[in-house]
Amino acid sequence: MTASPSPALARHDLIARFSEILGPAGVLTDATDIAPFCTDWRSLYHGRALAVLRPASTDELAAIVRLCVAHDVPMVPQGGNTSMVGGATPDDTGREVVICLSRMNRIRGIDPRDLTMEIEAGVTLKAAQDAAWEAGFMLPLSISSEGSAQIGGVLATNAGGNNTLRYGNARELTLGLEAVMPDGSVFNGLRRLRKDNTGYALRQLLVGSEGTLGFITTAILQLHPQPREIDAALCAVEDASAALDLLGLLRSRDPSLLQAFEFMSGTGMELVTDLIPGAGLPLEETAPAYVLLELATPRPDADLREFTESVLGEALEEGIITDAVIAESESQRAGLWKLREEHAEAQRRAGASVKNDVSVPVTHVPELITRATSACEALIPGIRPAPFGHMGDGNIHFNLVQPEGMAPEAFLARSHDIMDTVSAIVKELDGSFSAEHGVGQLKPYMMPSWRGGAELAAMRHIKTALDPRNLMNPGKVLPPATQGA
């Protein structure tokens, strides 16, 4: 039986109790101080918070969770606040507390023989990458927001990114976890084992739960050897089908070398080169579409450049690609990646945009792009489809920019029409409406039709068992109980 909450404390009494546990640096209540925590990165959601709590240890976090449970205070976990679906934004009631783990930011250790890193949730992904590299290893997880995204949020959303094709997403890189559960108890699963069949894999349940089942506080992540050679190349192609042919050619020659394979539409590339300073196309002519590929090897005798030139030469001869450029330095490699990583910012500068983070089996990516482009152009004449993303693992960000001259508010008012149009095609192609960004508070309405029946019922049972009063990140992932199964 679940214990009933204690009588609600007055706001100032509750804040005083939080301050006793966390100290003055751990509690933010001034409206100016908490404002950045109450708006999501895309400015789609604007909430209010009772306070922002910043624990410095697992014990402190557990204590404030128990206090929140005792007084029926909803909790919203937040890392670097880079969610694309409003997953870390409080509602507008002012009852919720935002709990940010940025003060829990220690890299506890790196084991060079075990190839593991033990790291706290508040460390940014970039800091974790740098620490691994300085120790002679590589943390392969790489996303556009890695400079601000924190490990806790990266794991809670099961982030994917550019290197998923080769190394897997966050779930595949996580060996062990420590977490504070919704009742304030501490799950200590910081085990470095590759094999551990002792009941349910709770760490896998927490990874990807978007903060609805507990707070990830510490993780043990797998590292990989540093590559000795890296080649990046930008290739011009006629369409997504040709891009898929190039992927097949690379895999047939040596799949172990392929690290990233990113698709970009001609429209998206044009926005980047027009609107982002310093982003220039290093090819003689523009193309209908592009592929940014990256090959890497830890072997000292691989002669990677010879392989890259050989396979791209073959692709040119067969008409799979129409042009290509290989980076000759680290700065040129960074320049090629800038063309890919600035797509979201370029689209923001071009006006309002609707983002569809979807995935389909890799073989269906060309059909997805062709059909969704036609459907959206029919839905809103003048709309600018700008799909891009991780073609190598089937994850395309099918983003759409407002027609030139259309009011941003009018375009965004059609967001659900656009999302539903794209999602209907994705569903027919056996895909997913959320590939790596999560469900958050943007997409729970889609869950019954996509994950209904036994699957959604099981999710609800798990949520109720661990968080019976729905205090952990309420309103995220699962739709209201009255909607769907």
TrEMBL record:
Keywords: FAD, Flavoprotein, Oxidoreductase. Its cofactor is FAD. One of its GO terms (biological process) is respiratory electron transport chain. It holds the Pfam family FAD-oxidase_C. GO terms for molecular function: FAD binding; oxidoreductase activity. Residues 45-226 form the FAD-binding PCMH-type domain. It comes from the Bacteria. Its EC number is 1.-.-.-. InterPro entries: FAD-bd_oxidored_4_C, FAD-bd_PCMH, FAD-bd_PCMH-like_sf, FAD-bd_PCMH_sub1, FAD-bd_PCMH_sub2, FAD-linked_Oxase-like_C, FAD-oxidored/transferase_4, Oxid_FAD_bind_N. SUPFAM superfamilies: FAD-binding/transporter-associated domain-like, FAD-linked oxidases, C-terminal domain. Gene3D superfamilies: 3.30.465.10, 3.30.70.2190, 3.30.70.2740, Uridine Diphospho-n-acetylenolpyruvylglucosamine Reductase, domain 2, Vanillyl-alcohol Oxidase, Chain A, domain 4. Belongs to the FAD-binding oxidoreductase/transferase type 4 family. PANTHER family: BLL6224 PROTEIN (PTHR43716:SF2), D-2-HYDROXYGLUTARATE DEHYDROGENASE, MITOCHONDRIAL (PTHR43716). This is Putative FAD-linked oxidoreductase. It comes from Komagataeibacter saccharivorans.
